Amino acid sequence: MKKHYYLVINENAGGGTGGKVAEKIIKQMHTAHIEYTTFYTDHAGHEREIVQTLAQNTLIPWSNDLEISTFPLLVVLGGDGTLHSVTNALLSFDSKIPIGYIPCGSGNDFARGAGIAKQAEKAFFQLLKAETPQEIQIITYAESIQDEVGLAVNNIGIGLDAAIVNAANTSASKSALNKFNMGSLSYIFSILKVLFTQKGFPILVEVNGKNVEFDRAFLCTVTKHPYFGGGVPIAPMADPRKPVLDFVLVERINMFKIFWLILLLLRKKQMHSKYFHHFQSSKFRIVSTFPEYVHADGEILGERSTDISFGTETRLFWF
Ligand SMILES: Nc1ncnc2c1ncn2[C@@H]1O[C@H](COP(=O)(O)OP(=O)(O)OP(=O)(O)O)[C@@H](O)[C@H]1O
Predict the structure, then answer these.
(1) Which residues form the pocket of ligand 1, taking CB atoms under 6 Å from any ligand atom?
(2) CATH class, range 2-132
(3) How far is the CA of 173 from the centre of ligand 1 (A)?
(4) Staple 79 to which of 13, 114, 198, 262, CB 3.0 to 4.6 Å?
(5) What positions does the domain DAGKc occupy (predicted)?
């Protein structure tokens, strides 16, 4: 079936990669007489407004027996943050509206985890070649203290990873490093800074009808695929096509042990550490009474006490 591509472009993603990729792709679409319409975001959160308007007026749910000549396909050009925002913008619409995604960020964990090419032009050809969308499981969350619900395509973290995201987002170095294609370096600086300052905090995990308590949680992440922080394989066993969540918790230990654990992590051997805990389930509830940073797909939800229930839902991605 022919398609009309509705491109939602965050030119600033990946320190300007979004703009450069969009230019190349649009040139190729123009040359190949492919039908498209472009929407450029001009401020943070603008992608949400654009996509909601498109969902109201233009986008339709996918089905294998559609009797139309041209399918209107949403395509997002941005990083994980833009994709997070677009996915949430579609929360109240039909879950069968497919999303095409061309990774242009600095981390690109969703592309890595789902099997979308990380190189934008390759991802574009992957998208053009696909005739049907693929089912990917994403995270649903309901936070009862602030009464919030939402979706996450990668992971939701409380404690260390959220504090790192917060430090990386606020560090003056991020945009400078992104310009030199060294976005992951900003994570390294932030990791080092936060590693030394983040304290252990008590946490309650409700999983499979049991309560598990930890006195000195350090890193707590619910993830739907193996990667976080720009390619770190925190949960190598996680599978975005299965309706289960992986929850990883690392206890606060001394710095020597932490660096040893990081070495294990880089070799995907973290499961051998007794300070690394892993649970797999279709549902989790996590309660942290201490005010800790919380992030969803690298977007900070706040520094706060939290009571979050997690599950999974199917979404269609075009690749
Ligand atoms: N035109 C814009 N100017 C500034 N911010 C924007 C614009 N368009 C979107 N945003 C915001 O940018 C934020 C982050 O974008 P995104 O994560 O896609 O890129 P990134 O931070 O460069 O990539 P990564 O998360 O991989 O590091 C999103 O919250 C989005 O709302």
Answers:
(1) 10, 12-14, 41-47, 78-82, 85, 105-108, 183, 298-299
(2) alpha beta
(3) 16
(4) 13
(5) 1-144
Nearest CA to ligand 1 atom 14: 81
Band (pLDDT 50/70/90 cuts) for residue 229 is: confident
Q: Strands, E, within 114-200: which ranges?
A: 134-143, 148-152, 155-159
Q: Ligand 1 center to residue 63 CA distance, Å?
A: 31
Q: Name beta bridge partners: 297.
A: none
| Tens-place pLDDT, residues 148-185 | 999 999 999 999 999 988 988 776 555 555 555 555 67
Q: What is the three-class DSSP state of 174? A: helix
Q: Complex ipTM, two decimals?
A: 0.95
Residue nearest to atom 15 of ligand 1 (CA): 81
Contact 315, 99 (CB under 8 A): yes
Q: Taking the domains of the chain in order of start, what are their residue ranges?
A: 2-132, 139-318
Record the pTM: 0.93
Other Cβ atoms less than 10 A from the Cβ of 199: the count is 11
CA of 91 to the centre of ligand 1 (A): 19
